Amino acid sequence: IQNVIHPVVHPKTENPLLLSTESEVKRGPEMMKSLQWHGAKDMRVLPCLRPHVTDPTDVVLRITTTTVCGSDLHMYLNEVPAAKPMMAGDIMGHEGVGIVDEVGPEVKNLRKGDRVCIAFAIACGQCDYCKRQEFSCCDKTNPSKQMEKLYGHRTAGIFGYSHLTGGFQGAHAEFLRVPFADVNCLKLPDSIPDDLALLLSDVACTGWHGNELAEVSPGHVVAVWGCGPIGLMIAKWAKFRGAAKVIAIDDVPHR
Q1: Looking at residue 6, what is its pLDDT?
Q2: For residue 166, how many other CB atoms are within 10 A of its CB?
Q3: Rounded to whole angstroms, what are the CA distances from 125 to 12, 15, 19, 63, 81?
Q4: pLDDT tens digits, residue range 152-187?
Q5: Which residue among 27, 204, 207, 241 is least enclosed by CB atoms within 10 Å?
């Protein structure tokens, strides 16, 4: 990681949820630090324009804790299977905890100063998928034609996870704009520290989903292939759900 002073301009995008409003532009060039992608294995800590409320259902968070995900390697190595999925200056990160700093006029459940965890997937809360609580399939937050062409469908938008998933700027920054904030932010009690709350952005939920898919129940013997963060969380949840034995399999000795 290089620490270089060099402001960047956010790239053009096909996603209308990313476009700045006139009121946002008038605020002037307030800066923040962020972790930006500038090519394969080329990550830089650089200043850039900080976000503000763009749509009335947005909040802006002051990020207090964020972390990397194993799946970030796809972007780090520039191996996302699409034409120009990353652009220089893209901000990484889809897991984060922060304090609400700005609140859009149509946000109902959040106030400035609230401490929240973000969901990695960005859901609108209104489409048919969201009404069925299939939030990661939301069809309003990711207009990527490339993803539809490659896979025949689109996922929801994802923070800091390439233009294949909407081109949203990520949580590896001092501030983060969260669209549809009432849907995508979870208020946290003071009793849960940041490092534990952060698991709710992705890892804890993904591990639980793996157990749901395998229908893990009391008395089961569960084998987990791969003991990275998700594998470890799957193993933890399997024990929580009453598995009689959990067998962890990995070719990395320290795991």
Answers
A1: 36
A2: 26
A3: 26, 18, 20, 23, 28
A4: 999 999 999 999 999 999 999 999 999 999 999 999
A5: 27
What pLDDT is recorded for position 23? 46
Point out the residues of the chain with pLDDT beneath 50: 1-11, 21-25
Q: What is the DSSP string of the chain?
A: -EE------PPP-S-GGGPPPHHHHHT---EEEEEEE-STT-EEEEEEEPP---STT-EEEEEEEE---GGGHHHHTT--SSSS---TTEEP-S-EEEEEEEE-TT--S--TT-EEEE-SEE--S-SHHHHTT-GGG-SSS---HHHHHHHSS---EEBTS-GGGT-B--SSBSEEEESSHHHHEEE--TTS-HHHHGGGGTHHHHHHHHHHHHT--TT-EEEEE--SHHHHHHHHHHHHTT-SEEEEE-S-TT-
**Predicted model pTM:** 0.87
| Contact of 121 with 160, CB cutoff 8 Å | no
C-alpha dist (Å) from residue 203 to 28, 82, 122, 220: 37, 25, 16, 22
Give the pLDDT score at 3. Answer: 39
pLDDT of residue 13: 61
Strand arrangement of the beta sheet that strand 96-103 belongs to: 175-178, 59-66, 96-103, 115-118, 185-187
pLDDT at 253: 87
